[in-house]
Each structure stands twice: as structure tokens, then as C-alpha cells.
Amino acid sequence: MLRIHFTDADLARVQVATRPDPFWEICFSLRRFESRRGLWAYAGWHRSAREALYAKGLAPVVRNVLRPLYPGGTYFPDFLTPSEASEGLDAGLEAILDIPRQRVLRELNILDRANGAPAWTRQLADNGPREEFVRTIRTYYDVAIRPHADHIQAHIDADRSARARNLLDGGTDGLLAGLGPYMRWRRPTLEVDYCEDRDLHLDGRGLTLVPSYFCWGGPVSLADADLPPVLAYPLRHAASRTDETGAQKPRAALPALLGDTRAVILRATATAATTGELARAAGVSAASATRHTTVLRDAGLVVSHRHGPVVLHTLTPTGAALLRAGGQNPRTAPV
């Protein structure tokens, strides 16, 4: 178990990342190639990403270069998930190039003891091999993850909407208490199901919560307690009748969207809403609202996630584009 200890100052500095962290997603997506756990949730992505990687001749690079550095065991080097990535992929890649040689060697030695690491990995302490490795990371991201970025962001937005509701209803305590099922808030400690037993004292630094699309199972934190505290946690995936490959396109169900009721419901999801709230906005029963959201979801316009006793519905990028085409601002569409 990981026990994260908060002070009052830390509770005032908890934040949820606004967008996917490219380096955590790189790490966890590589693990999805190693394990069949949760494959049902990523089947469309898994198929399209594999096809793209093979088409580009990158499968051997993934197998022999990337996966040894991101093993599915208890440890992978912290320098591969730089905090600067909050500013985007380019900032994170620059940060990796700037990491001191001794730190790279130290973390690679830990990797070798924990999981075993090929001898070539030690070359990453030197500038030339590290620059080549950074180019490899960028190429993998561009081929396997970037085509699905809008789909991933839609899931992140849905999760953030749920966290925002918890925060508004219960303050930071409500936010932390709603992070289950792998986490339990027992003030002033967040208990996290973890692969090893350790304590992390925030000491006033706060905590950044990073929702991750490709994370499966329990949350993951940095190994070095002196680095800015981060906790990457898995999004909740729901089984879908649609084939989620990441490319959000109108589907055959789209013509069924014609009609005033569904238009109202679609606008209401712009700010995230429960089934009951959608029903009230449209003046229909909850059962009717459920049927309408099913059509919208099958058309790729909304995404739905269960959070405790309620289901929260939010727009996908395609849904937002449809609202914009109709003259609505999806960020401020009236309910």
C-alpha cells in the first residue's frame, strides 16, 4: 500500500491535470501491448496502433527499445515521466535531454536491479544516444497515440467533470474521497492500493492527480519522493457497442439525432450532466433521457461514465463540433 500524507497546506494544493500527460500515456500504452488485462477497453486502439506501428516498421523498435525501459514490473525510471510534460510533449522531451547524467545512470541501475535492463540502456546517459531515444519516443507518440488524442481528451474531460462535482459538493475531502476504487481517503492520509509498501509525505508541496486513459489497475506514483508529487490514476472505462479506435466520426445512428429533445440533451451535456439533469432539461422521464443518450453515445457524440450512484454524460470532440456547427459554444451551451 502507498500512503500519501497530507498537511493542511497540501490540501490547498491538490490539482487534477487538465489534459493527458503524454509520457504517462506512452508508458501505460506500452504496457497494454504486454498484457491482455483490460484488453476489452482498448481493443479498437490496440488493433489500429499495432497496424500503424507495423506499417511504419516500428514494431522491432517498440519491442527492443521502448518496452525494456517501461516494463510492467514495480519500477521504471522517473526521468521518463518529467513534470515539464504538463506543458506538452515538446517540453517533456527537452526536459529528458537536460536531465543530469548521474541521475539517468542511478535510475537505470534501479531498473536493472528491479526488472533487469539491457546493457545498451546505460548509453542513455550520453547525449547522442539520448537524443536518438527522444526521437524514438516522439515517433511512437505520433504513430500510436496522437491519432487518438481527441478521443483520449474526451475521456479526460469526462473524468474532470466528475472530479469537479465532487470538489463542489464536498471540497478537497470530497474530491479525494471520490477517487476510488483503488484509493481510500482517511484524513489526512490517502491510502492507495500499490505494488509495494511505502509512505509519501507531501510536506506542503501538494499533489497533482493525473487521469490516464491507458493506465489499467491501480494508480502509479513516482519512485523518488523528492520529485514533485504526482499520482497517475486510471480512468473508468465502460463497455461500448461501438468500436472505439480514437477517430471520432459520425456513425450510422447520426440521422436519428434529428428532433428537439435530443438537441436539448446534446446541449445539456456541454457542461456535463447526470441522466436526471438531462431529463429535467428536456422535460422527459429518466427512462426517456437514457434512451436518447444511448443514441447520442452510439453516434459518437457523448461519452458516459458511472461515478458512484450516478452516470455523468459529457461531449466528445465530435459532439462539440456539431454544437459549434449549429452556432453553439460547447463550453457555454445553455441547459
Automatic annotation (TrEMBL):
GO terms for molecular function: DNA binding; DNA-binding transcription factor activity. It comes from the Bacteria. Residues 252-329 form the HTH arsR-type domain. Keywords: DNA-binding, Transcription, Transcription regulation. SUPFAM superfamilies: Winged helix' DNA-binding domain (SSF46785). This is Transcriptional regulator. It comes from Streptomyces lacrimifluminis.
